[in-house]
Specification:
The protein has 114 residues and is an all-alpha fold. The protein is built from 6 helices and no strands. Helix content is 78%, strand content 0%.
């Protein structure tokens, strides 16, 4: 999955910064990941109409991982993955700074026994 995620970042950047054609993007995927060509073309079409999608997803993934590690470290044995997921998912799509505030609040409340 990490190879696939890395390829997504390359293709997203290639299309929107390097001005790759659809076929150049498809060929990059074909050369670097093992997905079926039909799936690749659908993925490429999504990146064409949604600039930065892959990059935004990766940044979000990294931030959520960072917040999870922070919560695990601060809460130790009191860390509950289901509760962490509830905090992350409860408000839907929010800016990462807001999500960080929400997780920090949850950590404080969990430490206080709330």
């Amino acid at each position: 999955m990490e190879i696939f995620r890395a390829a997504r970042l390359v293709v997203d950047t290639g299309i929107h910064s390097k001005k790759w054609t659809r076929e150049e993007a498809v060929q990059y995927y074909l050369d670097n990941i093992a997905n079926p060509e039909g799936d690749i073309r659908a993925e490429i079409d999504r990146y064409i109409v949604w600039p930065g999608q892959a990059t935004a997803y990766k940044i979000g993934m990294l931030k959520i991982g960072e917040l999870k590690k922070k919560a695990e470290t601060e809460l130790g044995d009191d860390f509950n993955i289901a509760a962490f997921h509830d905090v992350v998912l409860a408000s839907g799509s929010v800016p990462l700074s807001v999500l960080e505030d929400m997780v920090d609040t949850w950590i404080k409340e969990t430490k206080a026994g709330a």
